[in-house]
Design brief:
This protein has 289 residues and is of the alpha/beta class. It has helices at 2-8, 12-28, 33-42, 51-69, 71-76, 79-83, 92-100, 116-123, 138-148, 160-171, 204-212, 245-262, 284-288, and strands at residues 86-90, 105-108, 128-132, 153-157, 175-178, 189-194, 197-202, 215-223, 230-236. The chain contains 13 helices and 9 strands. The strands form 2 sheets. Strands 1-9-8-2-5-3-4 form a 7-stranded mixed beta sheet.
């Protein structure tokens, strides 16, 4: 732990430089990681096949390494030190306005850029609740707990008790955070298109919004070049998500796609977003193929 705390004190440009090397080491390590990342980039439709996708892949490898390296200051630095890395924001005034109007707030934060800083930024100002899945590694578990549960942020488990806690927080007119681009567990999602392929998409956001009338926003923490910090971007949903689960999931995926199109190199392409969860029937187009 002492060594990690020592590394966390390095300037962010140095940590990001280390992260670039780390990203390439992980990419070339044995396993299916590199093939999945490459396939996800080339099959996404985000880049022009050939040189364009090769360029995006190289950028994404470097950015994914930065994402690992910056976890140290995110989790181990004091709140004030972390929040100083937020150099500006666009659209955050809509979130402040919703909170001031007495609405609950749902922050929909895809795996783009430094999504870890979003909860800390909101939690430093208002009560904030997020779900948390414990890691089987004790040290990593301790780091995540201490790093994320600070100021006014509360962690709740990824089960029904956690869902009830999110619902209660919104009814208290507080904020919650949702990761929209994780694969839902069996029974908690529907198949909806994402970057041209079916993805089993969580339905929680639509359910919570219908029950509470909360305002929902897509939020991205853009990682600025040369370790200059982060810029927060907030995009409000124009209206309430539809009751139909598939239609609501499609709206969520379209919002994530728009963010990916804007910051393609900073999306976590290594994640197996299109995997088939156990116990879930394949989408009709897949079974018919």
């Amino acid at each position: 732990m002492f060594l990690l705390k020592l590394l966390a004190r390095l300037p962010l440009p140095v940590l990001h430089g280390i992260g670039v090397a780390l990203g390439w080491l992980i990419y070339w390590a044995p396993g299916r990681h590199s093939a999945r990342m490459r396939n996800n980039v080339f099959d996404s439709g985000v880049c022009v096949p050939g040189p364009g996708c090769e360029r995006l892949l190289r950028q994404s490898i470097s950015e994914s390494g930065k994402a690992f390296a910056e976890l140290l200051p995110m989790w181990l630095h004091r709140d004030k030190v972390v929040l100083k890395q937020v150099r500006g924001s666009s659209g955050w005034e809509h979130i402040d306005a919703a909170h001031a109007a007495g609405q609950g707030v749902i922050l929909i934060a895809p795996h783009i850029g430094c999504f870890e800083i979003i909860g800390q930024y909101f939690g430093a100002r208002h009560p904030f609740t997020i779900m948390y899945k414990p890691s089987p590694k004790p040290l990593l578990n301790e780091l995540m707990l201490n790093g994320r549960q600070r100021s006014q942020t509360t962690l709740v488990p990824t089960d029904m008790s956690g869902v009830r806690a999110l619902l209660a927080a919104l009814r208290r007119r507080e904020g919650i955070g949702i990761l929209p681009d994780q694969v839902a567990s069996s029974g908690d999602g529907v198949w909806a298109p994402f970057l041209g392929r079916p993805a089993y998409t969580p339905t929680l956001v639509a359910s919570l919004q219908r029950k509470t009338g909360a305002a929902a926003f897509f939020v991205v923490a853009e990682r600025l070049s040369w370790g200059r910090g982060y810029h927060l971007h907030a995009y409000p949903l124009s209206d309430t998500l539809p009751e139909d689960k598939t239609a609501a999931a499609l709206r969520i995926n379209q919002g994530v796609e728009a963010a990916v199109q804007r910051f393609p190199a900073q999306y976590q392409w290594r994640y197996n977003r299109h995997k088939h969860p156990g116990g879930v029937a394949l989408p009709v187009e897949s079974t018919a193929a």
